[in-house]
Amino acid sequence: MTDERYSISQVSRCFGVPISTLRYYDELGLLPSAGRKGNVRLYGPAELRRLALIQRLHHRGLVSLADTAALICEAPADDRPTGRDVLGASIETIKGRIEDLRAAQHLLEHMLTCPRADPVRDCTELRVELDQAVEDGLGALDV
Fold first, then answer.
1. Ordered alpha helix ranges (H), the chain
2. Which pTM does this prediction carry?
3. Cα–Cα distance measured from residue 18 to residue 123, given in angstroms and rounded to the nearest whole number
4. Could you tell me the CA-to-CA distances from 22 to 12, 50, 51 in Å, in that order?
5. pLDDT by residue (tens digit) across 18-55?
6. CA–CA distance from 141 to each of 1, 127, 132, 136, 137 (Å)?
């Protein structure tokens, strides 16, 4: 990678991020520019790598924007969790999402192969799952 600098509009286009988002990241201290040429923010290789990291962490839904800040900002705030805490919590969240997706996949695969003519309305397994969801939902009223 060269030491070339890229304008905010070039970075916006190349990374698929609105200019307003890049400005917001700068305001938050997540992605300060490497400098300016007149009023135009410029970004160098280090800033582009940092943006790529932000995209991998936040845009892919791995961690919140606040947690992204906790991971990559040089001076962590006292009220932020540590980077390792963020990573551990994110892993647990992802594990939960994976379990949910596996359950959804199982249900869809069952409905696809269900011998009933109309599995959405007549599938016994689906009806049991829906009855449980209704019971769980109404159970929250008792709290």
1. 8-15, 19-28, 45-54, 65-72, 83-113, 119-122, 124-139
2. 0.68
3. 46
4. 8, 12, 9
5. 999 999 999 988 999 999 999 999 999 999 999 999 99
6. 58, 22, 15, 9, 7
Cα gap 43→53, rounded to integer Å: 14
Q: Dihedral (C-alpha) 16, 20, 23, 27: value to the nearest 10 degrees? A: -120
pLDDT tens for 62-96 read 888 888 888 887 665 666 677 888 889 989 999 99
Q: What is the CATH number of domain 6-72?
A: 1.10.1660.10
CA gap 123, 111 in Å, rounded: 7
Amino acid at 80: R
C-beta of residue 58 within 8 angstroms of C-beta of residue 66: no
